[in-house]
What we know:
Elements: H1 6-22, H2 26-70, H3 75-93, E1 97-108, E2 114-124, E3 136-146
Helix pairs in contact: 2-3
Amino acid sequence: xxxAGWPAALRRRLASTGQxxxxxxxxTTELVIIAPVVVVILLLVVAxxxxxxxxxxxxxxxxxxxxxxxxxxxxxxxQDRAVQAASGALSDAGxxxxxxSTAVDTSSFRAGGTVRVxxxxxxxxxxxxxxxxxxxxxxxxxxxxxxxxYRQYADSRAGGS
Length: 161
C-alpha cells in the first residue's frame, strides 16, 4: 500500500464501522414494535376458534334436541325432551351459556311430519377482552328431524297433551 492510498483505505474502514454502529439496537426496536401486534393477532385467532367451536356445539345440541323431540309420542313430550336434550348436550360439552333458550316447532307433529328445534346460547367470552373481543356472543342453530311415517302419534288437539 502506498502512502497516498493509505488514508483512503482508512476512511473506507471507518465509514463502514460507523454504518454498523447506526444499526445497533434496530432489531430490539423492531421486536418491541411487532410483539404486541403478534400477541393481539394470536388472541384474535383464539377468540375466533372459541366462537367457531361454540357455534358447532350449539348446532350439535340443536340436532340432538330435534332427534329427542322426534322420538316423543306427543307434542308436549317433544317440547320437554327437546329442552332436556339441548341443555344436557351443552352442559356435557362444557359450554357455559349465560342464557339459553330452546324453541320447539311442533306445528307439523304428525306421521311423516317434521319437528324443528332452535337453540340459542349466549356464551361468555370475557376471558378474551384483551384482544378487543366483546364480552359475550349469541349463537343460534336450528335442527330438524323427521317423524316416522308409519308410527302413531297422540293427537294433541284431542286432549292428548
